[in-house]
Every structure is written in structure tokens, then in C-alpha cells.
Amino acid sequence: MSAAIGLAVIGAGYWGPNLVRNAQATSGLKLEYLCDLDAERARRVLGGYSTVRVSDSLEEVLADPAVHAVAIATPAASHLPVAMAALEAGKHVLVEKPLAANYEDGRKLVEAADSRGLKLMLDHTFCYTPAVRHLAEIIASGELGTIQYLDSVRINLGLVQPDVDVLWDLAPHDLSIFDAILPKDVYVTEVAAHGSDPIGAGKACVAHLTLRLSHGGMAHVHANWLSPTKIRTMVIGGSAKTVVWDDLNPSQRLSIYDRGVDKCPADELAEEKRARTIVSYRVGDMVAPALGEREALRAVMAEFAESITQDRRPLTDGHSGLRVLALLEAASESLRRGGVFVDVKQEERV
What we know:
Helices cover 31% and strands 29% of the residues. By secondary structure, the chain is α/β, with parallel strands linked by helices.
């Protein structure tokens, strides 16, 4: 495509206005429609002087040849019918997390997109932040050594969602980040989840998720709607170095520590010491890399446009969305079964 990609945003609720704003600021995209069942709400989002058309009919929008792609910001339960209708109409699709309400619905969307040669992309926004892109680069470079553990905390006094528990609301951010930064040959094999509902909401409002990795490492996610303080941190421990990511500290989001624990081989120890495990502590420098600041959603929109014009897989394609859904479904099954480890469906990694 040499001309701008005609885009329709579907959904004018909480996230839709953010998609509208960033689509209008992205070269290569031309926002044609904002579609919502409440047309008046869509008009309020656009303002009185916008040339973007408003529609309350998905069928009307998808029938317009000026629309080449859609960005969907509707409830997860509607993702299958809305995204499938768009794919069947020959439109590329960007969809808000999660990909669908369950793994099987997500699989149908991935297969529909692949069979038609269309782009299906997930709005895993954190994967497009400078911090996460830098994390992916230093892990791929081997600077951290072998990844031994990941520990993520995502807590705040948040909105208790009417249709999902705290894991389905908050953990997709962390799970998509893990998926983006881990080496391709390292993946989650089993998941265990524990949760509580201290306020009687009828769903888990506090949850802890433990993930076993294929190479023997472990990852952990703490998600919480009830914390009076907001914390967004992740620790990635490697055999060589450790990184701490504090997303709420714009002046020092990443801190890379050349510190850790080394085990001394038994053949290097004196005979009287071999009965004990001997470790040495490595204490080196801390480096805080300078990172640019940019709105992650702007990078999401740019990636969507470029994946279409360059005919390539987007960074967070439908298969990445399926991998996150597989983890969430295993977590839900673990919660139902009292926190036992549950095997994770394995999805393609390219």
C-alpha cells in the first residue's frame, strides 16, 4: 500500500478515545470512522469539528472500501464476533487485550487471519515501551546470562471489573511482557494460581501467579486491585546480571546490577569444605541506561501500519495473544483446583 491505510476504531468507551488520538497522529493511517452502538458518545469523543465519520453500524463500516483495517476496543466477550466479521470482510485487525474471551475463540481468529493473509495484532501496549524493548535487547544479547527468575508486581487501588477477575484484568500485561522479552527457546510449561476475594466481589481481587519455565527457571506475578499504593515493578534475574524495572520512576526506569551469587565448583574447594555448598557474592556496578520517552500506544499504531505496508508479522501478533490466553486459562483452572500446577497449551513461537 502506498496510500494511507483507512482505519476504523470500533468502540468509543474507555480505550477507544486513546486509539482515536494515536491513530490520528500516526503517519500511514487515516482514521475514517469511529463506530459505537452509542453514536452520540462517539460524537463527543471526536468533537464538533472532526471530519471522521461516526457510525453505530459495524456492517456499514466494514462494507466501506475506504476502510482497510479496524482497531477494536470493545469488551472481551465481543472480540470474537467483531474481529471475525472484520476478517471475513477482508480487513486487518488490531484488538485490545485479551485476544478473545477464551483460547478456542482466539484460535478461531488466528486461523481466520492466517488463512486470509491478513494481519491480526494485539494491543499489548507495554511491549512497545522503550523499557521493555531495551529489556528484550539486553536479554537477547546475553548480557544477563541465563534467566533464572522473573518477579513482577502490578498492584493499585483499581476498578473491580464486572466480567473478569484480577488475573484476567492485570496479568495480561505482565504475561505479554514475559512473552516479548524471554528467549524464543524459553517458555512457560506449567502455571499455578492462588487468589482471594476479601471484599466479597465474587471473584479473585488479589492473586499470585507462579510460572515454571522450560529451562528450569521460574516467574511470578502479583496482581492486586486492593492495594492503597500503586507499584509497577519487575525484577529479571540472570546468572550474570539482574535488571530492576520500575515503571513509575521516569528518571530511572531500568537499573542493571552487576551483582549476584556464584557457586564454587567442588573440585576447586579444599577437601574439608566439600561437605558444604560454597557460594561467593559478586558485587559490581549498577548502570541506569538512558531511555527515550514516547507514548507506547503511538508505537503500537505505527507497528500496525508498518506490518500491513511491509507485509510482515507484527511484534505482538495473534499467536502472541494465544500464548497469553493459554496462560490465563491455565491460571483459571489452577484457581478452580485450589492452586495446583496446570500444564499450559503450547502455541507457535516465530
